[in-house]
Every structure is written in structure tokens, then in C-alpha cells.
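Lab manual, section 2.4: Encoding a predicted structure.

Procedure: take the sequence of the chain (290 residues), apply the prediction step described in section 2.3, and record the output as C-alpha cells. A sample record is shown.
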Amino acid sequence: MKILAIVCQKGGVGKSTLSVNLSAALSIIEFHGNPQDPGKILHVDMDPQHHSGKTIARGIFGTDENEKEVGELTLGNFLMKDTPLPITKIIKESHLPTKDNINNLYYIPSDSESMEDADNRLRRNMSGHYRLKELLKSLADTYKYVVIDTPPNLDVMTENALLAATHVVVPVVLTPYGLEGLAKTIKKIQDVQNDPYINTSLEFTGIAITRGNLWHAEEAEWHKILKKNYGKLVLPPVSNRTEINMAETQGLDIFSYKPPRDPKAIASSSKATKEYAALADEIKKRIDNS
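Recorded output:
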């Protein structure tokens, strides 16, 4: 099981958008590769803001409607060890991606209130940084890929993701503050990799430009600097396109919002789907080969 954490210290870099679209892309790729028995993908939202989890669960923005039933256990309860039940008891199938009867994307139900409680409690617990790793151990034989969304900080929820992950991708926007956030995040990743008691096997898969405007001279220059400093770690960029925002507004991944006419294709004529398909394909190759 490959566990990919999407991590960045800075907010507004598209972590949630990347986690949703990457999860959908992996789902489609696996389905096309083996329609009878595709690899299963699990999406985990560790961000108390709960944006990507809401999309995956067909939630209605501004409410908790459709996300969980009254009294239902959620990820926060398991992180706080409020129940002796196994995490498998609450995992659900996502409605995404909405094409070709694909049904291999799953999620752990979550909600803002319990995740905020968990965030506060885990900070005060010596073993709190390892809770997600403990939960995912039991799922190793069920899921091929796990994609973890994280909050815009490097605190306990992000640390849980980094300690559980086999791989990490850092999304970035090409601004001075964006690159500062990238540097802080890479420092955190290196600290995790270099500590023999944390996660020395963590692989830094790459840096993803998620809201690029590379036709602007200033961003093009920052892109050159990024490639000069980080070389092959820089992944294929995704441009800041209206279609991606519209898909989010409708609670969809980009591939469901702009589906291809060819049932065997991942991307449609939409440039947004082509860019996300290229990014997902490169990330999949890197994590499969390491």
C-alpha cells in the first residue's frame, strides 16, 4: 500500500483540490487498467477545515449534510480512540469519479467538530502523532493507494500524515510567500526523514505547481528558479483554470466535471483534465517505482 501525503505549511496552495483530483485520477487509471478488479483508493482528510472530505463525501458546503448520520462515528473519534471498533467499520464508497460506473474510491467519514477536538487532544498526547499510522496499518491488504489531505500548517495533523506516509508531495504557488512555505515544508520533511525514530523511509515524490500562471513573466521566472533549485523534483504544472474552480463549486473532481467522449480516456479536450492527468500519471509512476 502506497500512502501519499499532500503537505504544505502555506494555505491557499491547492492541497485539497490536488488531493481530490489525484484520488479521482488514480481511481480512473486503476479502473482502466483492470476493470474487473481495480486497485482501491482511500482518501483521508486530516484537515479540520474538512474541504476535500466534504467533496469526496458529496457534502453540501456550509453544512454537514450528506456527510454523516446523527451519532455516526467519524475519523476524529478513531484518532481520539473513542471507540474500540476497527476503522473498516466506517469506510464508505465515494460517488466520485462519476463516470463508467467506477466504484473504487473510498473515504473515511469526517467532520469539522470531531477533527478540531482530535487536533486539540492529540497535541497533548505523547503518542498522538502516531494515531493515523496505527489506523492505516490494518488497511494495507485492502487499498493500493491512500491519499491524505492535510491542514495548512506543520502541526500534529500534518505530522500524523508524514509519519504514516510512504511518499509526500508538496503543492506550491509561484509567489515569494509560496516559495517560503515550500522551503519550510521541505525542512520539515527532511527532519522526519533524518530522525531514526520517526519515518526514515519517507520518499519526497515531488513539488506540484497547482495554480500556475506560467504565461506571466514573473511566475515564469519563479518557475525557472524552482527547476534550477529542485530539478527533477518539480512535477508537471497545473494551471489556474476556471474549470477547476467550477468543478469544486459543484462538488466534483475535474474528470467528472469535464468527462472525455472516449470511455477509455482519462482526460477530455479540457486543458485542465489533461494537466491533472499528466500530473497524476507522473506521481503514480514515481510512487510505484520507489
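Check your result against the sample. The radius of gyration is 18 Å.
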